[in-house]
Amino acid sequence: MLNKFSDYIYYMPNQDENDRPTLGLVSGEQYSLIVDCGNSTQHAKDFLNEIKKLNVPPIKYVVITHAHWDHFLGMNEFDATIIVNSQTNKLLNVWQSYKFDDSSLQTYKQSKLMGDKCIEIIQTEIPNRNQFKLNAPHIIFEKTLTLDLGNKLCVLEKINSTHSDDATIIYVPDEKVIFLGDCVYGTTKNSLFHYKKSLLLPMIEDVQKYNAEAFLLGHESICDMEEMTTFWRDLRAASKAVNSSSLEDALESFNLENNRTPNDDELFFIKAFVNDYIIQSL
Ligand SMILES: [Zn+2]
């Protein structure tokens, strides 16, 4: 089942149990556009089967929000123009050289090019994977690109992100909806989950310049304005409190500034910003 946001926007909610991110569908009068292609052939097929039940114009474009496997491995199922920013394209170029048979997967596992979950999904949800080869994107843009689906514009922009260096957002002005992919999340390096402090404020600015009222996130589905405002507030407060790799100092600074101890979300973010300092000192 797809969730309906409006007559023009649907989405398939994330399914955490099998690492499936949120997938989006935006339709205009002439064409439809897909946001992210799923973590596998099966995920993409499931999405396409649901779209078939709707009476929407043909899919002309597919936008990949960033080059993490769970957002693009279903790409080959779409008979459409695949669009990515130039940084995502560079990362996808590497994946186009990969093979997906067991012995190749084993090599990638050992060299840490692919994680366990990625390999498990490939093995179970990409049939004929011994012959599988990832397609190349068709349109590469640098900073922004605006598409017209027929009286329905979609604005694509590569923005600053705490999650990856290649984040594309898709904003639909008519609907005041923004697809954020994973851009507002943190990331993991050397087994440490961290939030890149230097990119937090530039990212918030990049997102807030759009007049969005609904926010679709890669692993959360949909957030309204109030939820996003709380999310930004918690992140900002946590970031402000952290100025070194000391968790103790950060907690003290948070208490001084806010006259209270952090809530669970704030504490989670504080630890992630502390980890950012730890990673930089490695
Ligand atoms: Zn990601």
Would you give an account of this structure?
With 282 residues, the protein is α/β, with parallel strands linked by helices. It has two domains: 3-98 and 134-224, Metallo-beta-lactamase, Chain A; 238-281, no CATH class. Helices cover 37% and strands 22% of the residues. The chain contains nine helices and 15 strands. It has helices at residues 41-52, 69-72, 86-96, 102-110, 116-125, 197-208, 225-241, 247-258, 264-281, and strands at residues 3-4, 9-12, 23-27, 32-35, 59-63, 81-85, 139-141, 144-148, 153-158, 168-172, 177-181, 187-189, 192-194, 214-217, 221-224. The strands form three sheets. It has a seven-stranded mixed beta sheet. Strands 8-9-10-11-14-15 form a six-stranded mixed beta sheet. It is globular. Zinc ion (ZN) binds at residues 66, 68, 163-164, 182.
Instruction: Tell me the total number of β-strands.
Output: 15
The kinds of small molecule bound in this structure are: zinc ion
Domain module count: 2
Q: Figure out the total of helices.
A: 9
Give the overall shape, derived from the CA principal axes: globular
Low-confidence stretches: none
Strand order in space, largest sheet: 1-2-3-4-5-6-7
The portion of residues forming beta strands comes to: 15-25%
| Class per helix and strand makeup | alpha/beta
For the sheet with most strands, the description reads: 7 strands, mixed
The CATH superfamily of the largest domain is known as Ribonuclease Z/Hydroxyacylglutathione hydrolase-like
The helix content, as a percent range, equals: 25-40%
What is the terminal-to-terminal distance? 46 Å
List the secondary-structure elements in sequence, H or E: EEEEHEHEHHHEEEEEEEHEEHHH
Name of the CATH first level of the largest domain: Alpha Beta
Mind telling me the C-alpha Rg? 19 Å
CATH-scheme architecture of the largest domain: 4-Layer Sandwich
Mean pLDDT: 97
CATH-defined fold name of the largest domain: Metallo-beta-lactamase, Chain A
